[in-house]
Write a structure and sequence with these properties.
The complex is a heterodimer of chains A (about 475) and B (about 190). Chain A is mainly α and about 475 residues long. Chain A has 19 helices and 2 strands. In chain A, strands 1-2 form a two-stranded antiparallel ribbon. Classes of the chains: A mainly alpha (about 475), B mainly alpha (about 190).
């Protein structure tokens, strides 16, 4: 955060922002292109969005170096940590667009839908590359604003509008809390940079302790809301249920990755001086989140609502890696988020496939007898649900294993025990879906969407979950390597 | 001394304005109180030599945003009595939270971090420092990235607002001009052999 004199020098190393620049330009190009496309050709926008994501992924790999480099006068940082999370979010976006292909076909203003997904992606990519509160907050708002609109996209569906409104109001409240907390940290350290705040807090005198605590609590409350940790999870079930299913898939993965990456940066760079205090708060939050998520999911009959509570439960497990606050813990959280991406995207792909004339295919009853009609889908769904439940030798097991081990090694044995008990409780509602699929009779006629990209998504995610489960070492090694920029 | 007097005047008035926004029975009065609050906050900016921000606050917020707000309120016809239903029901919980927050804020602000010994009083720059130029210098250098992102946020807000409101209604009939212009004889005229 060097002081810049006027007339300003041209920002050095602009090429580090190449991925963001591609996304920003392409989003605007698609916005215009959409005007010239006929109603039946709007699908091209989706394929162009996928191509953009693929190109951006290559650009991200190309500009990544081994260390951390900054550009835009130090307000943007690119390190392997940011690059890895960007690749995860790009993958999540590609899956979300594929899921939308058929689902959003009949909606109005389809072109803008894909543009907004790209803008949300841009916001998240800026978030993970933020090393200061200014870039972080603006990226967060860009992401949040796009997502509010995406959630409310089905204007004719009442619950979609309701979900968007609830998400918007609570999101605005949490942004307010986040900003208010930032002002206190700024008041003590006179800086927005994470590193500068970290250094300032170490040197701050004792009288500042109360102010720092207040700022920290507000910042944590704001961040915790974005990744739906209890008791700030109230928006999640309603939003997940009301949003169009592909958007639910998108917001259940990508913003969580971005949120946790920012969370790790804030905890590790800005708040190491108060680690003892924030660990205490996070342990309570993690325990509460795991209990609320896994217990409340049992009562749900709508699978989207059930997965919302399941997300809350999983987020609690990811938080355990942050509580451990060492290399193993952070790497564990990254492994968890990576695995969670595949599991959730696969499950949501099958839910989207279940939609047929007039029926959303979201109730648990709708899955009855799936194995008799479509054994392939039932098998994939079964694998993904087993993985979500954490059955050994599927990816979800290793994800849980690494964060539990990290928590135990740093002395949070009771939290790990609680997490283990409640992940067993969690098995119940995942296995219940499998029971519906395999042991119940067909109740309603199935009439599946025949879409090759969707089938590919199901196959790829199910295979990924199995492959990572059988041979988890590469993913773990990559996640460890990605931490170079952070630790 | 005079400056301190003005500070307390503006500060007290903006707090009163803020209270008025929440407490006024009539929604229109709330908006008026908000304008009052903005004016006094602008006064605080002037005291800090930040005349550009003060003028922007009056021009943009009072001049544009609040006027738009008034139109919206006039069109929506919000029934505040109905909104206030159940207010008493939430008062105990809300009141306790507000009280805790107030105590925390007082504790934080009186902890000695924000007193005049640790933070030097803001001096005046004199007439050769141009507030607008100074803001421009940092906005287009250090904070350029933030500025650009804010621009994209505005674009998204624009697109989002249009996407959510601009819908063709299925039960209404529309004129499609390009279809009318491009219509060919064969589309409308059919020769029938008698």
């Amino acid at each position: 955060m060097a002081n810049v004199t006027f007339p300003f020098p041209y920002p050095q190393h602009l090429e580090l922002m190449l991925p963001e620049i591609i996304i920003a330009i392409m989003a605007m190009v698609l916005l215009i292109w959409d005007l010239f496309l006929g109603k039946d050709k709007k699908g091209w926008i989706a394929y162009a969005a996928i191509a953009t994501c693929v190109a951006t992924a290559f650009a991200t790999i190309q500009v990544t170096t081994g260390g951390a480099l900054t550009t835009f006068y130090g307000y943007f940082v690119l390190d392997p940590f940011a690059s890895f999370s960007k690749l995860l979010m790009l993958l999540a976006t590609v899956f979300a667009v594929i899921l939308s292909l058929d689902y959003m076909k009949d909606e109005e203003n389809v072109g803008e839908y894909y543009c907004l997904i790209l803008f949300a992606l841009l916001g998240m990519m800026l978030m993970v590359s933020a090393n200061n509160f200014v870039t972080m907050y603006l990226g967060l708002e860009l992401m949040a604003l796009s997502v509010y609109v995406l959630v409310g996209y089905q204007r004719d569906v009442l619950r979609s509008s309701e979900a968007a409104l609830k998400y918007f109001i609570l999101g605005a409240l949490s942004s307010g809390m986040l900003l208010y907390g930032i002002t206190f940290l700024y008041g003590v350290t006179a800086s927005f940079g994470f590193d500068a705040i970290g250094a300032g807090l170490v040197n701050a005198n004792n009288s500042a302790h109360g102010v720092v605590m207040l700022g920290m609590v507000f910042v944590l409350a704001g961040l915790v809301f974005k990744v739906s940790i209890a008791p700030f999870h109230m928006w999640t079930p309603d939003t997940y249920e009301g949003a169009p299913t592909p958007v639910t898939a998108f917001i259940s993965v990508a913003p969580k990755v971005a949120g946790f990456v920012v969370f790790m940066r804030v905890l590790h760079d800005a708040l190491p001086a108060v680690q003892a205090d924030y660990t205490m708060i996070l342990v309570v939050l993690a325990a509460l989140t795991i209990v609320v998520g896994n217990v409340a999911a049992i009562a749900q009959r709508n699978i989207k609502r059930m997965l919302a509570y399941s997300t809350i439960g999983h987020v609690g497990f990811v938080l355990m890696g942050l509580i451990a606050a060492n290399e193993a813990g952070y790497a564990g959280s990254l492994v968890y988020l990576t695995v969670y991406l595949f599991m959730n995207m696969g499950v949501f792909a099958i839910i989207v496939l279940m939609r047929r004339d007039g029926i959303q295919g979201e109730l648990l009853d709708d899955f009855a007898g799936l194995s008799k009609v479509r054994p392939g889908y039932a098998l994939a769904m079964g694998l993904l649900l087993f993985s979500l439940a954490g059955i050994p030798f599927l990816a979800g097991f290793w994800a849980k294993y690494v964060v539990f081990m990290a928590a135990i090694e740093t002395g949070h044995l009771y939290l790990a025990l609680l997490a283990i008990v409640f992940s067993v409780v969690g098995c119940f509602y995942y296995l219940r879906v499998i029971k519906y699929m395999y042991f119940d009779d067909v109740r309603i006629e199935f009439n599946f969407i025949e879409s090759i990209p969707m089938k590919m998504t199901v196959v790829v995610t199910a295979l990924a979950v199995t492959a990572i489960g059988l041979y988890p070492d590469p993913v773990m090694a990559i996640c460890k390597q990605a931490l170079v920029g952070l630790i | 001394m005079l400056e301190a007097g003005f500070f307390y005047l503006f500060a007290a008035m903006s707090v009163i304005g803020g209270m008025g926004v929440v407490l006024a029975r009539n929604t229109m009065h709330s908006v008026m109180f908000l304008i009052f609050c903005f004016f006094n906050t602008a006064g605080l900016f002037f005291l800090l030599d930040a005349e550009f921000l003060g003028i922007i606050l009056i021009l943009i917020y009072v001049g544009a945003v609040m006027v738009l707000f008034m139109f919206v309120i006039m069109m929506l016809e919000v029934n505040k009595a109905k909104l206030k239903e159940g207010f008493l029901q939430y008062l105990p919980v809300g009141g306790v939270i507000a009280l805790i927050l107030l105590i925390e804020l007082i504790a934080a602000s009186s902890s000695g971090v924000f007193n005049t010994e640790t933070i030097a009083a803001v001096g005046h720059f004199g007439k050769d420092v141009n507030n607008t130029v100074e803001i421009g210098k940092v906005l287009y250098t250090q904070y350029l990235l933030g500025f650009e992102i804010a621009a994209i946020i505005l674009l998204v807000a624009l697109v989002g607002a249009i996407v959510l409101t601009l819908r063709t209604r299925k039960d209404a009939k529309y004129q499609n001009i390009s279809k009318q212009v491009n219509v060919r004889k064969e589309d409308r005229l059919r020769k029938v052999r008698m």
